């Protein structure tokens, strides 16, 4: 009797699904179409060395140029893409596009590592991991980094650590994103092959007006350095924040004060204005001013 009731319920769920697609199913179809029609695009946000003011790398951030809704930010579709099992295709697209843009940058004279955000569920997706390794190994001079959150490692730590080690072994730099905002476990931090730690903007936005944030940031920088990791502060919006982070020994900064995420051609313009290769101290400072 019970199984009959279950079957009935299943059937009525199925009827509903046929009648009107669930939001997730609809989004899955929309994302497939978006990939076919090339509606996704990448913006790049520079990561800048705090003292030398050189651009050390860039982070790729995806956007969806939607035919009706206009520019859609990742906050509105990444979680749904994960739920709809479309995050692997989306991320492979992102990696391929980033590698293509890296060649364009190189042809224009800049050899920059490009960081990609990787969802936690992909760290246990064998097909994804194999495909990424094949792409990277087939691309001479691929210089990538993957930003992962600690929370994403905690789902299946053993598997995540194994795959992060594989990425590290083929030259992909691992960065811990949003550090301090999720489930921070020092036990995992110790085991990850991460070369970089990004302090969440939660601790950076009010750095110069808060009593506690500077203490947290300072000790996080010291911890990361003790573990031989480079420290990035995200969400740097003012010169005062940049100055304080520099005094605290933070290696790299990223945020609207330096540059918003920008399209590839705007990035090339930004780099052209950046004279750091032969720069005097003054022109380096001007790179920072360019942002305002
Ligand atoms: P995230 O990786 O932590 O990226 C930082 C976010 O903060 C970006 O938002 C960036 O535009 C924004 N941001 C940068 N500087 C500042 C600042 O100075 N102040 C403030 N208030 N915000 C700043 P965005 O581009 O909307 O991306 C949001 C999140 O979406 C990212 O957080 C990342 O987790 C995810 N994401 C973006 N692209 C991808 C992707 O290709 N794949 C996956 N799986 N996730 C992505
Ligand atoms: Mg990131
Ligand atoms: Mg972040
Ligand atoms: Mg974030």
TrEMBL record:
Source organism per UniProt: Sphingomonas adhaesiva
Membrane spanning residue stretches: none
EAL domain span: 24-275
Lineage of the organism: Bacteria, Pseudomonadati, Pseudomonadota, Alphaproteobacteria, Sphingomonadales
Coiled-coil regions listed in the entry: 1-17
GO molecular function, one term: cyclic-guanylate-specific phosphodiesterase activity
Range covered out of full length: 110 to 401 of 406
Entry keyword set: Coiled coil
Protein name (record): GGDEF domain-containing protein
């Amino acid at each position: 009797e019970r199984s009959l009731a279950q079957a009935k319920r299943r059937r009525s769920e199925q009827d509903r699904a046929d009648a009107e697609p669930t939001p997730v199913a609809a989004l899955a179809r929309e994302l497939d179409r978006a990939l076919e029609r090339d509606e996704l695009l990448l913006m790049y946000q520079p990561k800048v060395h705090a003292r030398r003011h050189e651009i050390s790398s860039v982070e790729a951030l995806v956007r969806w140029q939607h035919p009706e809704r206009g520019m859609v930010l990742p906050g509105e579709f990444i979680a749904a893409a994960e739920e709809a099992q479309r995050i692997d295709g989306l991320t492979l697209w992102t990696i391929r596009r980033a590698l293509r843009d890296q060649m364009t940058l190189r042809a224009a004279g800049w050899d920059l590592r490009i960081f990609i955000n990787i969802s936690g569920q992909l760290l246990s997706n064998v097909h994804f991991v194999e495909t990424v390794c094949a792409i990277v190994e087939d691309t001479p001079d691929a210089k990538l980094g993957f930003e992962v959150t600690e929370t994403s490692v905690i789902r299946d730590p053993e598997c995540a650590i194994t795959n992060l080690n594989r990425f590290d072994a083929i030259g992909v730099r691992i960065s811990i994103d949003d550090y301090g905002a999720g489930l921070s476990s020092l036990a995992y931090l110790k085991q990850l092959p991460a070369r970089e730690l990004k302090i969440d903007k939660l601790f950076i936005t009010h750095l110069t007006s808060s009593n506690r944030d500077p203490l947290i940031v300072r000790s996080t920088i010291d911890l990361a350095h003790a573990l031989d990791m480079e420290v990035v502060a995200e969400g740097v919006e003012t010169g005062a924040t940049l100055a304080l982070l520099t005094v605290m020994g933070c290696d790299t900064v990223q945020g609207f004060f330096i540059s918003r995420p920008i399209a590839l051609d705007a990035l090339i313009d930004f780099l052209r204005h950046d004279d750091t290769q032969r720069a005097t101290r003054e022109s380096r400072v001007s790179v920072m001013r360019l942002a305002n």
